[in-house]
Amino acid sequence: MLASSIMLSVRIICLHALAIATSAKNFPAQLKEHCSNNPAGPLRPLAHHTTCPPLVDDDTFVPSNPGPWSYPPTCVIAASRTNWAPSSKKEKKLCAYTASSIRGGSALSVITTTEIAASMSAMLLDPDIAWLEKQRGGVSLTDFRAEAHKVQRITGKGLGVVATEKIRRGQVVMVEQPVMVQLADWEPLGWKKSEVVRLLREGAAKLPPRERKRLFQMAHRGMGDIVDDVVRTNAYQAFVDGVEHSALYPEVARINHACKPNCIIRHSSTTLIMEVVAYTDISPGEELSVSYVPLNLVSDQRSSMLKGQWGFNCTCPLCSDAKASTASDDNRNRVADILKMLGGGSGLSSGALRAAVAEMEDLVAEEGMAAQIGDLYGIVADVCLTMGNLGMARELAEQTLDVQRWYAGVDNERTTKALEFWQEVNEMKPV
Ligand SMILES: [Zn+2]
Fold first, then answer.
1. Residues of the chain with pLDDT under 70
2. Does one domain contain both 187 and 327?
3. Residue after which a domain boundary falls, among 230, 251, 272
4. Of 109, 117, 250, 347, which shows the fewest CB atoms inside 10 Å?
5. Dmax of the chain from CA atoms?
6. What per-residue confidence (pLDDT) applies to 83?
7. How far is ligand 1, taken at its centre, from the CA of residue 293, in Å?
8. Cis omega before residue 28 (within 30°)?
9. How far is the CA of 315 from the centre of ligand 1 (A)?
C-alpha cells in the first residue's frame, strides 16, 4: 500500500551534515579484532555485558548456543583485501544474521562482519534496558502513547502520520527497533555487490512474515533489487560498535518530510532504538513531520537533495511560501557566514566571539535549527581552541555535550564525540 508513492516514507541517511562533514570516517574500523564491549553499558553489569562474545559465522555457528541468532548465518568472503589493515591476515566474512525476536519484540536481520555481529550480541541479548532509560534523564523508552498518532491518507502525499491528541514539545511519540541493519561501507573492503544483495535478500527472507511484510511495504524507487532499493531509500545512519551502518525503521519511515519539521529523531547507538520526539507542540489533526535533509540547508540545496535522492518536490509550508523561503535562506546563509568569519578570525576578542555566538543562536532559534546547535557549538569550540581561548572552548564543549544528549541521544555517536571533546579540552592546560 505504500509503494504507490515514494513521497510518503522516504528517508535520509544522515540528518546532520555538519556532524558528518566534521567527523573523520573511522575506516576501516570494522577490521579491528574483536572483542569489543558495550561502552554505554549498565552501572552494574551482568556477565553477558562483560564477557567476550564468540565470533559466529557459517562455520562456527553452534545450534545449542546460538547467541541472539535464530539461524546459522549465511556468509561471503571478500574477494579483495586491498583496503584492509596490514595486520589483518584472516579471511573476513560478511554475513547475514537473523534474530526472530529482540528483547521480546520485533525481529531483526543484520548484514555485517563477524566481529561487529559479536559485539552486537550482548546488546541484543539484553532484555532489560532500563538502565538506559535512567540515563536519558526522564524520557523513558516506554513513556510514549502509541495511540497519540495514526497513519492516514494525506492529500498529495499518499500516507502519513497524524496526531490524534495534543503532543507536547519533548514528548517521545514513537519508539522502534530496526528490522534490518546493513554495514554501510562494504564496497572498498572487497565484497561484491551481487553477494551483498544476496545477503540482503537472505536477511529479508528469514524475517518472520510480519516484519518481512513491513519491509516490502516500505517506499522504494523501482531501481535494482527491491531489498537493496528499500534500504537505499529508507535507511537511517546507525553506528554499531563505532562503525557506520544503514538501519530500517518501518514505522518511523511512515513520517513525511517537512523542511521545518515538528519532530526530530533520536538514535541510540547502544540499543539501536530510534525515538521520534516532538520538536514543537503538536495539535490534534496536525501531520507529524521530520526533515530528511540537514536542517541548515538553504532552499536550492534542499530541493536538489530531495528531488535527487527521493524524487519529489517539497510542498511543505516553508517551500510553498516564496517570501518566507527567501527570508529563511538569508538567515541560514548568515549562519554559514558567521562560521566562516569565525574560522578566519584568529584575532577575535572574547566579546566578538560571544556576540557572534549570540547572533547564531538567535538565527538558529528563528529557523527551527535547534537540533543542530550542538554541532554548531562544537565547530565554534574548535575555532576557540585554534585562537587559544581555552576558557570559551570549555564553555562551548559543555554546552555541546548538554544539547547533543538531548537532541541526538545520550548514547548517540555524536554525543560520544562531544563527550570526548569535552574531556579533551578539560584536560588541556592554559598556555
Ligand atoms: Zn520544504
1. 1-52, 80-91, 127-145, 345-346, 431
2. no
3. 251
4. 347
5. 66
6. 65
7. 10
8. yes
9. 6
